[in-house]
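Researcher: Let's do a round of design. I'm pasting the structure tokens now; please hold your answer until I've finished.
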């Protein structure tokens, strides 16, 4: 038996007193159903035991340790290990446990660990010498039970002291839900809202928000949505004006929502969920490009800050706008992380500037062009995207728009530092690039070929053509974007120069067809200067993400040119001749009038002789001379000064004469458009739009975009 010493065993050969005889034929056969039931019970017992110890490992794993110590004692006795061979290591273990506890634990815990080591060693030494009998077993069970009880009592006491106990967790009931911290009615008189009533008031993660009924004030709710109202509320709560929001978006008429952030939402950055075990947002391991992609979080509500690249209307052309230091690169990293995780997206990356981040992402991209020396490669990628649009448009399908799938993925052309691609080294526009981008922007939506551009401005001068900027339906706006750039978007976007306290990464995502602006802060992916928070985060992501590929028919259509770029080579001029001009679908006269651009030369054709170019009847764009460059700079400076003068004039209060003239223009039955106002006053359409925004209490707008018309409200008509 297990507890007997080796010297006490029977030395005689096996005999009938202790021999084991087995008659195999006499063993009854167990039914199959009973065997299956036994197997299921064993599985259930194993799973239940595993879950029992997994739920509270720190409290329950010592039970396994106690059983292990008992078994070790039996083994020591069986193999005749003397007591002193166990006693001497026990003394050393006690001294080591005390020394380690003094450095890492409090004194009560140190004494407990030391006593546990000495007790276990003493029992092992005793059992190794005399064996395990009834008395020693009861001594062990009693000592272990007493020590385990002390251990559990000490842990519960530590939990309560640290605020993690069960009693402490149940204490903070929803007190704030019942009793709002702000008595909003007391402020209504100062805010000019006499007669208003509170509909609901609830605490947020950073402060409190209230929904107010303004019908009793005798004023429309839109009259309270003003900058002066936010500043007045900020004065009462002693916070920055950017931490106060007054809005009527999405609310019924006669209601206004006021939100006050009493806690600074931008005090700390938001780590990326892949590198933050305590993240409130969980990113799916495999993304779907047809769903909104989380790239950050709204600190006030905790909701994800998302960007939409595809919906029921088709694919979305996206523009990221931010000044240097505004968080553009980090935001682009967040988007690339989701794009490379999508099973139905293929990404081509272009950055002709320093391209530090894009070079890191290159192993997870299907094609990439990084650095100033790869302009030719980038231009060929644009032409292949154009060729793909033509090919997909000629294929038979059951839907008007290509629905991204694993068999036919969306192609996303991510172009960082867009101005570096649109302009050559001498500062002139590369019209070949502009033509290809204009075609992709206008025709790629239905064929799941989209642009994702990132630059410091979204003006026509920066983009090179209105055919590009007018096709942008998705915007990501970050720190430092000017008021003029916000006005061109066409929706009420917060002033990013003030919103977010000038912190990098604070962003607003705008999807025009939803007429909604989402605000928050992007995840800090590759935003630090250390190995743990810097660009090596991209390397850790890329290591597990091989690039996706286009469908087989598209690869066969792109042919050797794609294969050459995929292998890292640049095709020769003769090999890319078919990419220069693809036969395109027939367009009607209206589309031709809007989208057509002059036929210009590519970089390959510019490298040919002038005689060859003349024979091909193509237009040559010569580089600017030093005098021409100086004249171009003067013209751009004059344009900027004119824009600044118009912005200052539109931002100042309207004079009575100008106000009367605008009201007269809007008094017609059909109203007046932005272009008609601009022609009548001799200003730009953007300035005309700003003028009419100041008449919000007199006029109302009907329609959206270029078709919007302002008309005088009924009660203001003479």
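Researcher: That's everything. Go ahead.
Model: Designed sequence:
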């Amino acid at each position: 038996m297990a507890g007997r010493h080796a010297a006490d065993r029977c030395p005689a050969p096996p005999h009938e007193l202790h021999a084991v005889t087995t008659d195999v034929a006499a063993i009854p056969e167990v039914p199959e159903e009973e065997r299956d039931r036994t197997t299921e019970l064993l599985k259930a017992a194993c799973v239940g035991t595993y879950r029992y110890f997994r739920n509270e490992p720190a409290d329950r794993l010592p039970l396994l340790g106690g059983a292990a110590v008992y078994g070790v004692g039996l083994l020591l006795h069986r193999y005749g290990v003397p007591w002193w061979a166990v006693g001497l290591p026990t003394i050393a273990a006690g001294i080591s446990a005390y020394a380690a506890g003094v450095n890492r634990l409090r004194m009560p815990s140190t004494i407990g660990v030391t006593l546990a080591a000495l007790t276990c060693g003493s029992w092992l030494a005793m059992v190794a010498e005399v064996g395990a009998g009834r008395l020693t077993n009861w001594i062990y069970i009693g000592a272990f039970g007493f020590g385990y009880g002390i251990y559990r009592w000490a842990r519960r006491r530590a939990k309560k002291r640290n605020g993690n106990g069960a009693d402490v967790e149940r204490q903070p009931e929803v007190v704030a839900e019942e009793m709002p911290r702000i008595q909003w009615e007391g402020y209504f008189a100062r805010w000019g809202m006499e007669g208003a009533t509170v509909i609901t008031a609830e605490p947020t993660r950073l402060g409190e928000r209230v929904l107010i009924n303004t019908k009793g004030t005798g004023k429309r709710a839109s009259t309270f949505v003003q900058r002066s109202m936010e500043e007045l509320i900020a004065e009462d709560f002693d916070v920055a004006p950017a931490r106060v929001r007054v809005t009527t978006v999405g609310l019924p008429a006669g209601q206004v929502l006021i939100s006050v952030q009493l806690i600074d939402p931008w005090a700390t950055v938001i780590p990326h969920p892949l590198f933050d075990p305590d993240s409130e947002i969980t990113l799916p391991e495999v993304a779907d490009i047809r769903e909104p992609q989380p790239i950050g979080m709204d600190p006030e509500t905790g909701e994800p800050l998302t960007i939409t690249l595809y919906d029921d209307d088709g694919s979305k052309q996206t523009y990221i706008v931010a000044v240097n230091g505004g968080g553009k690169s980090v935001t682009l990293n967040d988007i690339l992380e989701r794009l490379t995780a999508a099973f139905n997206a293929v990404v081509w990356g272009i950055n002709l500037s320093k391209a530090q981040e894009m070079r890191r992402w290159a192993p997870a991209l299907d094609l990439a062009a990084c650095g100033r020396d790869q302009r030719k490669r980038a231009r060929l990628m644009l032409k292949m995207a154009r060729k793909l649009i033509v090919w997909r448009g000629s294929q038979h399908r059951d839907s008007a728009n290509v629905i991204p799938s694993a068999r036919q993925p969306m192609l996303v052309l991510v172009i960082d530092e867009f101005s570096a691609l649109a302009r050559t080294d001498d500062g002139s526009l590369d019209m070949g690039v502009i033509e290809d981008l204009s075609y992709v922007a206008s025709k790629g939506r239905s064929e799941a070929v989209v642009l994702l551009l990132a630059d410091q401005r979204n003006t026509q001068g920066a983009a090179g053509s209105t055919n590009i900027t007018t096709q942008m339906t998705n915007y990501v706006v970050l720190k430092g974007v000017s008021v003029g750039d916000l006005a061109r978007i066409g929706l009420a976007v917060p002033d990013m120069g003030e919103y977010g306290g000038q912190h990098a990464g604070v962003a607003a995502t705008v999807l025009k067809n939803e007429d909604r602006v989402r605000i928050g802060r992007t995840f800090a992916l590759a935003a630090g200067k250390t190995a743990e928070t810097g660009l090596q985060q991209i390397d850790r992501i890329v290591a597990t993400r091989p690039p996706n590929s286009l469908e087989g028919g598209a690869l066969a259509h792109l042919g050797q040119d794609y294969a050459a770029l995929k292998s890292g080579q640049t095709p020769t001029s003769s090999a890319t001749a078919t990419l220069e001009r693809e036969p395109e679908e027939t367009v009607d006269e209206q589309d031709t009038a809007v989208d057509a651009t002059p036929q210009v030369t590519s970089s390959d054709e510019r490298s040919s002789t002038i005689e060859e170019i003349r024979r091909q009847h193509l237009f040559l764009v010569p580089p600017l001379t030093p005098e021409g460059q100086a004249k171009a700079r003067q013209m751009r400076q004059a344009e900027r000064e004119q824009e600044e003068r118009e912005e200052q004039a539109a931002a100042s209060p309207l004079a009575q004469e100008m106000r009367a003239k605008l009201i007269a223009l809007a008094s017609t039955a059909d109203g007046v458009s932005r272009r008609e106002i601009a022609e009548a006053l001799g200003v730009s359409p953007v300035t005309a739009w700003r003028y009419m925004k100041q008449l919000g209490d007199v006029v109302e707008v009907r329609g959206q975009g270029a078709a919007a018309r302002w008309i005088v409200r009924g009660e203001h008509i003479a």
